[in-house]
Amino acid sequence: MKHKYQKILWRFSPQDPIQTFELNRVIFGVKPSPYLSQRVLKQLSIDEDEKFPIASPKVCTNFYMDDFVCSVEDVGAACDLQSQMVSLCLSGGFELVKWSSNSNKLLQSIPEDKRLSAHVNFDTDNTVKILGLKWEALEDYFYFTVNFPDRPCTKRALLSAVSTIFDPLGFLQPIILSCKLLISDLWREKIDWDEIPSSDICEKWQVFQSQLGKISQLKIPRHLHLSSKKPILLIGFGDASERAYAACVYCRSESPSGEIQVSLIASKSRLSPLRTESIPRLELCSGLLLANLIQSIVKTFHPLVDMTQVLCFLDSTVALDWIHSSPHRWAQFVANRVAKIQNIIDPQQWYHVSGKENPADCVSRGLSPSELVQHQLFYSGPSWLKSSKDEWCLNKHTISDVSAHLEVKKGEIMCAVGHTTEDWVDKVSKNFSSWSKLLHCIVYVLRFVRILPKKLTIELCDLQVAETYIFRSIQRSHFVEDFKCLQKGTQCSPQLRKLDLFLDNDSIIRIGGRLNNSKLGYEQCHPILLPKNNHTVNLIIDHYHKLNLHTGPHLLLSLLRQRFWILSGRSEVKKRVHRCNICFKVNPRPTTAKMADLPSFRVQASTKPFVHTGVDYCGPFSVTMTKGRGIKSSRKAYVCLFICLTTKAVHIELASDLSTEIFLNCLKRFISRRGCCQVIYSDNGTNFIGATNFNALGELYQLLDSQEYQSKYLEGLNSYRIHWKTIPPSAPHMGGIWESQMRPIKTHLMKVIGLQILTFEELSTVLVQIEALLNSRPLCPLGSDIDTLSVLTPAHFLHAEPLKHLPAGDVSQDTHVSRYKLLDQLVQCYWKRWTTEYLHNMQKREKWSSSERPVRVGDLVIVLQDNQPVLSWPLGIVQEVHPGKDNICRSVVVKTQNGCLKRPVVKLCPLPSQ
Q: What sequence ranges are listed for the domain Integrase catalytic (predicted)?
């Protein structure tokens, strides 16, 4: 723990200044404090293991937080342990105090100031409190004193009083069960917390309280006479009544004088479920409770006791019959509990006992305090436990009725004839996405069919057996004929003949190869043959891929070849690596959709230019408002571009700022000079979001996104009967016709003005000249024919002639009618040439000539984000798709953790595992 995080503010008197103190000890109230204290003790035990061999193991097993509790067989061993434990703890800076023992000799060797202080004694006896129990140290026995406060008999008071009885070992379990039953009756009355229950419950509670003082008469010996030199036996009993079931465990040991001693170790009880269950089912539940209790006791007493030194008794012949048979025969309730019992204790260790000799009977029914004090059967067990084991009459079980068979699982016999080539391992493996999980599942299957022994944990040898079984099953289903040939000793199929196959001792097909004389291991020289296009093999490839930090295909194939030979291994490994989501997130590849057909307004002749118009901004550019010496202040100006979507004619306006009024003025000038248009297309301004750190583009985005701009702009458009359409966000390629015109405008400006700052009028003049140049560019590539003098340009549609052209001939003799007809013919000629010359150049799809797998609703995708690291791109799920007229989807709505976004499919990277 870092000391700098353990600081407090303190002053010793109101007059002193506040000081900062840093705590250099493990403090109370901090979450990691319990772990740190135990971890320090464990490390101290490891460091001092050789120096203190007796005390070191006890540190890890006998410390309960800061309390040390231990027992040994003789006083000499206790003195040695105490001496080493004190020295070991002092080596780490810890001092053990408050020593207490049932041995005067040991206490005399301990200084008085290190013994338990007299002022913490209870009553007049030498007592200490351990886990809520009271221990009389000199006479070495446990006892209880419970005093309930005098309070009215209410639901709150009753629950509060019962919860004060802390009995972790179950020495008072019959009394506690009586309290549980009383609380159960109290709960059925459905009264409030401070409401007095019925007179029957109040009377029972008053009788219980009046007898509670008799608990102090109980004296329970602590010493169990456990010794590694004498045989020890754990004996458990289970029983059930209509309202509860219980279990108790006894230790049968031999004292140094040879006397047999039987002592209660622990007991537990449970109330029956609210749903009515049969008595045999509750008896089975008591058996499971007993098995779990014995398992925890064996872990505590290890290595003095193991599970072979256990005997269990029930007085229900039906429950014993269930335990002694296979779980699969019974209904689900019985089968589950029988399986758990058999996994803990061998069925051969379960026996029958009569109800009168079953000490768990009193626990399952409950006793009053006065009855418990006189009930020796509960604390000492049946009398025959103290006799010789040869005199015991151990009965497995005797069935006197057919109650056990009422729980037989009902089933229907169905016969079907079918033929399949799919092995069951392949079928099961399709339900798993992990090689490790599949292996564990096969281990449990092999245990169920008794190929593997049943154990509490899965060991390495179990996994190896499961692997062998899986490989053998795969090979027998995919290499049927080759397997038969190898068994007969004949040649395999021509495709596998070069691999020199053979069967090993486990009947697994391996590669013979030519590396027998190398120093490689057996598995590297003779790898296991595996098929291609198999789900289980894919799980193995994925497992090695993740195990080796998502390495590339070449190294991954090399690692696999050290144990496996996968047919078409290179292509199989590449396929799996390319489908890895983790690798794909590091290097995502956007999907593509086939480039759409050009819209009708791009390929059909119009009545005039600018009927369908695109608009966009570029800039800012620095300008001055006036020209003169000493004028150094400059301001920003922006280029507003209008482009005809049919003829590529451009119209450029210079905007002095980004206000709504200025843009509307630009629109008015455009309409006044070029005529009114029907539809205006533009992006929605989101292409400026990534540049909001730059003040100029941030202002431009704020303009396009502002409510004032939207309302005034739409109002202005409606006054001219213009319809405004926008392209999807983050899809500049859909506005490529106006995006492509921005580059030549900026190029001409850099070439002409460089770093000079022009006046507003000078920049307007330059932009008009650039507009003339752009409108004079040929729409079609120039041919090599020397007779081709006229080239079609956007200016032909604007002025019936190019803006940069040779002087025309003398037309003063022409009449007005003939001149009008000539102009009309010229316009028709230009549109005809536009159809025959220009449109044919638009046939090719420069990219996205074909579609990949279409994006569907529910697909998981990575959303491409400009100007952000790849690993920070968000993950989303497709909510809506918007197919075009050709039924190809090019824009979708994606739901991410930050909300829903509309994006083109070229900005999406679908995960390859789909």
A: 605-802
- Distances in Å between the alpha carbon of 119 and those of 116, 125, 126, 128, 644? 9, 11, 10, 11, 101
- In sequence order, the β-bridge partners of residue 128 are 135
Q: How many domains does the chain have?
A: 5
Do the Cβ atoms of 541 and 556 come closer than 8 Å? yes
Q: What is the pLDDT of residue 119?
A: 35
Judge whether residue 636 has pLDDT over 60.
yes
Contact (CB, 8 A) for 656 and 637: yes
Helices (H), 26-168: 33-47, 55-62, 75-91, 104-108, 155-163
CATH of the domain at 537: 1.10.340.70
Same domain, 370 and 428: no
Q: DSSP assignment, residue 216?
A: G
Q: Judge whether 154 lies within some domain.
A: no
Same domain, 757 and 894: no
Element (H, E) at 899: strand 899-904
538 CB-side CA count, 13 A: 17
Residue 902: strand pairing partners = 893
Q: Which tokens sit at 621?
A: 């550019």
The 10 Å Cβ neighbour count of residue 140 is: 14
Is 384 in the same domain as 456?
A: no
Spatial strand order of the sheet with 260-271 comes to 260-271, 244-254, 233-240, 310-314, 350-352
Q: Are 841 and 781 in contact (CB under 8 A)?
A: yes
CA distance 143 to 171: 9
Q: Residues 148, 153, 157, 161: what is their CA dihedral angle, to the nearest 10 degrees?
A: 30
Q: How far apart are CA 83 and CA 77, in angstroms?
A: 10
Residue 854 lies in a domain: no
- Identify whether residues 280 and 313 lie together within a single domain: yes
- Kindly state whether residues 723 and 637 are assigned to the same domain: yes
User: According to the model, what pLDDT value does residue 441 have?
Assistant: 92
* Under 8 Å between Cβ of 20 and 11: no
pLDDT in tens, 876-887: 899 888 887 777
The whole domain housing 111 covers 7-117
Sheet holding 528-530, edge to edge: 501-503, 509-511, 528-530, 564-566
Q: What is the pLDDT of residue 425?
A: 84
Residues listed for the chain:
914
Specify whether 403 is located in the same domain as 469.
no
Whether 289 and 264 map to the same domain: the answer is yes
**Would residue 814 count as lying in a domain?**
no
- Positions of E strands within 520-668: 528-530, 564-566, 612-624, 635-644, 650-655
Band of the pLDDT at 809, cuts 50, 70, 90?
A: very low
Angle made by CA atoms 242, 248, 249, in degrees to the nearest 5:
155
* Residue at 815 is within a domain: no
Measure the CA–CA gap between 291 and 344, rounded to whole angstroms: 6
DSSP secondary structure letters along 608-636: STTSEEEEEEEEEEEEESS--TT----EE
Beta bridge partners of 618: 639
